[in-house]
Write a structure and sequence with these properties.
- The complex is a heterodimer of chains A (808) and B (696).
- With 808 residues, chain A is mainly α.
- Chain A is built from 25 helices and eleven strands.
- In chain A, helix 1 runs parallel beside helix 14, helix 8 runs antiparallel to helix 14 and helix 23 runs antiparallel to helix 25.
- Chain A is globular, with a radius of gyration of 26 Å.
- Chain A starts with 5 loop residues before the first helix and ends in a 7-residue tail after the last helix.
- Chain B is of the alpha+beta class.
- Helix content of chain B is 52%, strand content 17%.
- Chain B starts with 6 loop residues before the first helix and ends with a helix.
- In chain B, the strands form three sheets. In chain B, strands 1, 2, 3, 4, 5, 6, 7 and 8 form an eight-stranded antiparallel β-sheet that branches.
- Classes of the chains: A mainly alpha (808), B alpha+beta (696).
Chain lengths: 808, 696
Amino acid sequence: MQPESVPSAFRTQIRTALIIFLLLTLVTGLLYPLLVTGIAQVTFHGKANGDLIIHNGSIAGSALIGQPFSSPGYFWGRPSATTSYPYNPEPSAGSNIGPTNPELINAVSARVTALRAADPGNYLAVPVDLVTTSASGLDPDISIAAARYQVSRVAKARNISETDIAWLIDQNTQRPQYWLFGEARVNVLSLNLALDDLASHRIFVPVEKERVPDQEIATPFPGISEQDIFQLALYGVVLILLLVPFGRFMARVYTGEHTILTPVTAPVEAWVYRVIGTRPDEEMDWRSFAVALLVFNLTGIIVVFLVQQVQHLLPLNPAGLGPVPLDLSLNTAVSFATNTNWQAYAGETTLSYLTQMIALTVQNFVSAATGMAVLIALIYGLSRKSTEKIGNFWVLLTRGIIILLPVCIIISVILVSQGSVQTFSGPVTVPLLDPVKDSNGVLVTTQTIPLGPAASQVAIKVLGTNGGGFFNTNSAHPFENPTPFSNFIEILAILVIPVCLCYTYGRMVGSARKGIAVLIAMTIIFVPLLGLAIWSETGGNPAFTPLGVDQTGGALQPGGNMEGKEVRFGVPFASMFSIVTTATSCGAVNSMHDSFMPMGGFAQMLMMQFGEVVYGGVGSGLYGMLVFIIIAMFIAGLMVGRTPEYLGKRIEPYEMKIATIIIIIPIVLILTGTAIAALTEVGKAGVLNPGAHGFSEILYAVTSVSQNNGSAFAGLSVNSLFYNLITAIMMVTGRYLPAILTLALAGAFAMKKIVPVSEGTLHDHRPLFIIWLVFVIVIVGALSFLPVLALGPVAEYLQIVSGGLFHV
Amino acid sequence: MSDPDTRKDQVSLYKRAIIDAFLKLDPRLMAKNVVMFVVEIGSVITTLLWLQALSGHGEAPAAFIGAISIWLWFTVIFANFAEALAEGRGKAQAESLRKMRQDTEAKKLREDYRIVKNSMPDNSDYAVIPSSNLRKSDLYFVRSGDTIPLDGEIAEGVASVNESAITGESAPVIRESGGDRSAVTGGTVILSDWLIIRVTANPGEGFLDHMISLIEGAKRQKTPNEIALNILLIGLTAIFIVVCATLWAFSFYSVEVAGFGQVITVTTLIALLVCLAPTTIGGLLSAIGIAGMDRLIRRNVITTSGRAIEAAGDVDVLLLDKTGTITLGNRQAVELIPVDGNDINDLAEMAQLASLADETPEGRSIVVLVKERYGLRGRMVGAHETGPEMQFIAFSSHTRMSGVDIGPVSIRKGATDAIAHYMTENGNSVSPDLKAKVEAISGSGGTPLVVAKDGKALGVIHLKDVVKGGIKERFSQLRRMGIKTVMITGDNRLTAATIAAEAGVDDFLAEATPESKLRMIRDYQAGGRMVAMTGDGTNDAPALAQADVAVAMNTGTQPAREAANMIDLDSNPTKLIEIVEIGKQLLMTRGALTTFSIANDLAKYFAIIPAAFITTYPALAALNILGLHNAILSAVIFNALIIVLLIPLALRGVTYKPMTAEEALRNNIIMYGVGGIIAPFIGIKIIDLLLVLMGV
């Protein structure tokens, strides 16, 4: 190849970037959602359009979206934190009130009082889900215990016998899905509709009432049932089963070997490369690779920004949403390009369907594929010798999409089958069974439920560890995550690529064991923090107990800290989702992290502060992990008396310099960012919760954006100029600086010779090194963040333990 | 080399080191060590805060700030002391080397002097000048009793030289022009005869001078591993600076929202920073490097770069000369084999007679073998006063036989073809039996020596290279360390293979030539391996120049010495193995102390964090698991004292045993990783208790 002048090479890159961006927008932004919508509308028409309940010939509401009930004659659902009126889906919202916030204690206390006042003489302990707000504010379910608690009140109000009402509850109880998933629960709207039927004699209680016996749930640990244990084990089993086949599939796609999809993808790939004018064997050195990556990502940021500015002029905007404010647009654009998917916006009330599709969904795909491309470049760098070439960015990007797209189609269809919406129709308005007054005292008689092509975006949001939801409350929203089984699938989808990439990596460097060793190291860090979060949440909030709230988990209620959690997932799998999402830099949430107990929040933050390498975002997690391995290998190498090497590549000052900077970047970003926010009035203005928990909100937010996670202690109001800008800066720095440095590292390693393995070589797949690696990651994370965590969650936790807080 | 470890020397060494520790506080010097420089800045700031507190406007009681400040200064001084001590010890070694280089008189030959073979220059040919005025390629003259003023190469003459000043070996050695023994070292003394020597290095630029300046630190360049480690340490320090700086903001915020308590003081933040920063390894890093070089000198090896020592730790292929390294260097008689039905005793007697006057090692070994195995007393030359006169025939390159004529009886011994020639001359033919036995010996890698009496073969003496005792175990240790040993020999493949198998080397290069050695090194290097070799001859020079670690024997030629990056003053080829171990030990010490330093931080957090924030969040007292009363001061004191406690380890190096990488890592992780976590918990608690006892 003739040496090109830099500007002309740069121009070529821009041209290529624009063409491929256009192609990928077409495929992932239009064809993909259209295809999924087509399948959904044909196969699951009802569910894809909001799972509407037709009652007595007219629409009575959605089976998945709860309605507010306040009359004594109806069963009440969970308290809702949505604005203007409870259960207002525009937008969905959680309370985000922290566990030690006096407001929370007051609110719970008031709700207990209200329940007691409505039903004098009922001295039963109040089930916790009945007095805590749900994550989405739209939770359609309550626990069996919560339904039974209300029997006496409803019976009195309706003048129906308590046994008949109890029978009705049995009839409307959903058992754990497929025996295994989620909690037994009661859909409040269905129950109340049935109650109306019973009262108006449209249905009758049979004389021989068949009581369903209460299920005996064995609980090996308080709040954790046998099914929960099975489900936890099932994640492990399924991931292990997928590890080799899917890991190998990804390796084969990247290396251009034959896969099951080759007959379809090969001609498409060839066509794409011809159009953009590249060839798989036309590889780049690290600088060109980095330039291509940056040009492409910058294109993405600009396009997403512009689309938001003109969305009112574009089609597929049934809700008629206007242009998005400049700072919010910028934040959102950066957030999606960097795979952070920080949601400063509320999807259902800010972004049109078209924006969600061609701007956000596209970025979900390409930002994930970008992360994976950097990883593959590093793998090439580590496994090749004496070359400058670390792969072709355009080819790796395309192949990343080839991996993501088919899996997304499968996940989308599963989600639709569970009740995720996938439609281009506008919002649907349904009547409220029990109209309520809004905050202005105006009677609300209808509920407007936003729909949209959600399933297709949720699929890539989890698979690509993006996390940006279609709706405000993300995967807590019943349309994003309708059932316990969809929750299982989403958790699995978040983990599958980061986990299986370990195998891909091992295979590509010529030793599957090396990849599996990395996976084991990640798991060693993951499991205790998962355990900590589950332990913390199932334990409940000690402040509720004196109020007469029953938080004991069992067969009839999930128990535990239910503030900001949905009944259908239960506490263990809300906790698990939160740890998985923080571990993987996904950032999707199915519960409100802000309302977790301090140690739950501690585990989430630590998961991110370990550098998002366990298991990390797709691609970025593993390349971050490889940097940690290089550091660990360096010290270990010294300890065995040899110039340290990894995969036969000597680790010399240049590599150490880059690796050290990569490790430092997020630490500096998080700590200085938190300091700036904590010291400025604009920073403090966003804080919702008082005391140490408020500090945790800032820390969590800055950690999340720096590490490109995107989840939040969402009580912090981040849609302000200050936060939109500071988080945008952090997302860009936290994403691209390490990525570019990783490419430089790949370039440096590629140039090196490979030192042959001998007895003196320290094997990086043996248990000893795995333990060492874990030690290094934990110690770097701990040393950097223990002091700041001590002032946040640790202080809050110790305050609870010492009982020094609740003298409110 | 004289050892400076006498009591008086020790005392002055420590005195000097203490003085240097203070002199090194000069910020211009400190700036080279980022970690310790940060500590020094912290010390200055706390001192200023102390002065402020004395004036009554302090952020904390003056006594507290003062105590912290003093111990921060100690931390810096202790680290400086470690470096100064290492330098001092190195200097002491260097000083004793330098003594030999004191300015002496040199007899410089005139510019136009022409060397005449075997002719000694006379008084008119030279002028006596100070040796410092000699320049490279000048010629000078030395004769018995003179001290050789400068390194050089012998241009003419043969002399016996006492090199004990360098090697410690008192037996004189022969040095002569040409060949592999032509180099002389400054400071050695001529015992007999005379030499004309060509100066190879200007005064102050010789190998030794280079080494001295290396130890003295002026020219000490950091090695790649040291630089890489330094980067990591700077990175960690940067992290901790950010941690501590932002902590002030977090504390400020927390006090604001909690509504009570005190914002963390700058003194506490600096104390925390110093405790967290990897001061243990940062303070000892250069001491470790200097001590590594010092250890090398103690083993009489000098080097021109620290890089070479480090490379030695990475070596994965050792090229070793067979002779002198693997075998004792001389072939020895191990067996007598009679042929054609001759009596073994007869053969033994004749072999002995033929060797009585043979002063070669082989000849002597025959006498010894006969004496020990066959019980024949050595017959003194001329003991048969009554018998016929003995006429010894010395080995000549013409007949290639030696032996003795006793009256009419002639006894000869020699190589097979020489004796065969001798036999045919006497009308005898080589019997099949003889032929078979000779081939059997050759086949086993030995050298057959045929003994003949009056033109008839009696039998064969089996001469064999004897492998040094313990060398096989040594090689298997090396193998466990991942180092491959390759034997280099001029022998034929068959002989080489036998010795190789016996010595347990991994590979061998037979019929080695300078080209084949060079090629072999390049092949290994192309495969990514690091190669070390020893050599002494001029023909070794190209290979030495190519090898990553090249050790020249001090007795070697000047080209060999120049091509090498280390010189072994003892000229002991097995030294290479020790050099490798020193290199590994150097890296291991750095790794171990880095691990220890970082692992220490955990305990310091548990000491300082609760103490720092307890006024804001009293609940954090639960983290004070040690129940400390003077947590911050105790942690700072521990942090300073641990440097002093680890100085001996830094200077001595961690215990090194040959083992696999896996074993080494496990041992070091347990010792310095786990130990590093536990030790400060205990140490800080003890210091705290002592402080309480002292009423602080």
